[in-house]
Design brief:
With 316 residues, this protein is of the alpha+beta class. The protein has five helices and 17 strands.
Length: 316
C-alpha cells in the first residue's frame, strides 16, 4: 500500500510514501540522457530525457518506484491488486511491459498532455521481468507543473482519468475515490456549526471539531481522504525549505508505523517517503530509520553521460 501526492505552493512538488513489508535494494538513481534504455518489445532508446527517482536496479535496468524527468514530468506506480489487468502482445500498438511504463513515458514526454497522447497507443503486455520478479499489479499517477492524471489497466482496457485531487492510493479503482471524496465535503479546519435547534446544548469543546469524521485508519480509501484534506489545507511560507518540510508533513499524516498494518509475511510500514521539486529536479527523501531529509540534485551531475548514477539510501 502507498500514497502519492502532488503539492503546489509557489513551486510544484511530487512524491510518495512507499509502504511495504520488505525491501528490494532501493537506491536513488539518475538516468542521464545518453544511457541506453532497453525495452522488451520496443526499440532501445539511446537519447532521451534524463530522470531521477527511487529504483531497484536489476540487470542494469532501473525498476523505478517513482521518478521525475528533467522537464518536470513525474510518474509513480502504486499497488493495485485484484484490479490490474495486462494483455497479450498486439500488433500495431506500443507493447510495453508494466515495469517499463515509467521509463517509457518519462524518457520521451515533457508534460501530461504528451503523456496522455502516448498512453492512447500503449498496450500493457503480460510479461514478467523474470522468473524471480513476476509482474506487480499497478496503477499510476502522472503529474507536471500544471495537472495530474491517473492511469489504470482495468478489465475493459487502459483507463485514463484527469485527477483534480492530485492524490492516489490503492484499491478500489479511481472512480470510487472520485465519488467517495464527496462524502467528506463538509470537513473544515475551523469549528463545527450545529445544525440542530438553538435549544439543543451543543458547543465546540475542542479545536479541530470541524474535521470530525476525517478518517484516521490505514486503508487506501481513508488515506486518500486524509492526504487530500491535509494537502489542500496546508500552508507554507513559499520557501524551498518550508515547502519541502510541509510536503513531508503531509505524507507523515498517512504514514504507517511498523506494527500497525499486518501483511501476509510481516508488517507493512512506510519504508521511505520522497518529494521532488518539479521545477528544479531536486529529489528529497527520508527513510523509516533516518528521518532527516536528504537531497540529490539531478542537475548537479553530468546529464550527458551514458552511465547511471546510483546513490545508496541510508536507512534502507
Amino acid at each position: 500500500m502507498c500514497t502519492a501526492i502532488c503539492y503546489r505552493s509557489n513551486a510544484s512538488y511530487f512524491g510518495r510514501n512507499l509502504d511495504l513489508d520488505r525491501g528490494y535494494g532501493e537506491s536513488v538513481v539518475i538516468i542521464p540522457r545518453n544511457y541506453e534504455i532497453k525495452m522488451r518489445c520496443a526499440k532501445p532508446k539511446k537519447s532521451h530525457y534524463a530522470m531521477i527517482g527511487m529504483a531497484t536496479i536489476v540487470d542494469d535496468f532501473p525498476l523505478y518506484y517513482e521518478a521525475t524527468n528533467e522537464k518536470g514530468l513525474s510518474m509513480v506506480g502504486l499497488n493495485f491488486p485484484q484490479n490490474a489487468v495486462y494483455y497479450p502482445f498486439e500488433e500495431g500498438r506500443d507493447n510495453i511491459a508494466p515495469f517499463e511504463l515509467i521509463l517509457w513515458i518519462l524518457e520521451r514526454c515533457a508534460c501530461v498532455d504528451e503523456a496522455k497522447a502516448l498512453l492512447g497507443k500503449i498496450n500493457l503486455i503480460n510479461i514478467n521481468f523474470s522468473e524471480q520478479l513476476p509482474l506487480s499489479p499497478l496503477h499510476w499517477m502522472i503529474s507536471d507543473q500544471k495537472c495530474s492524471l491517473v492511469v489504470e489497466p482495468l478489465k475493459g482496457g487502459l483507463k485514463i482519468y484527469d485527477n483534480p485531487f492530485e492524490v492516489l492510493t490503492n484499491n478500489p479503482p479511481f472512480e470510487y475515490h472520485y465519488t467517495n471524496a464527496s462524502n467528506y465535503m463538509g470537513l473544515s479546519t475551523g469549528q463545527a456549526t450545529s445544525q440542530f435547534g438553538e435549544g439543543i446544548p451543543m458547543g465546540n469543546y475542542s479545536l479541530g471539531l470541524g474535521a470530525l469524521g476525517l478518517p484516521g485508519d490505514y486503508s487506501s480509501a481513508s488515506r486518500f481522504i486524509k492526504a487530500l484534506f491535509v494537502k489542500e489545507n496546508s500552508v507554507s511560507e513559499h520557501t524551498e525549505k518550508s515547502n519541502v518540510n510541509q510536503f513531508f508533513h503531509i505524507l507523515n499524516s498517512v504514514a504507517m508505523p511498523k506494527g500497525c498494518v499486518q501483511a501476509a509475511k510481516g508488517f507493512e510500514y512506510t519504508r521511505y517517503s520522497s518529494c521532488c521539486n518539479l521545477d528544479k529536479g531536486i529529489y528529497y527523501y527520508t527513510t523509516y530509520d533516518e528521518l532527516g531529509i536528504r537531497a540529490i540534485n539531478m542537475h548537479g551531475v553530468d546529464l550527458n553521460r551514458s552511465q547511471l548514477y546510483t546513490y545508496n539510501v541510508k536507512g534502507l
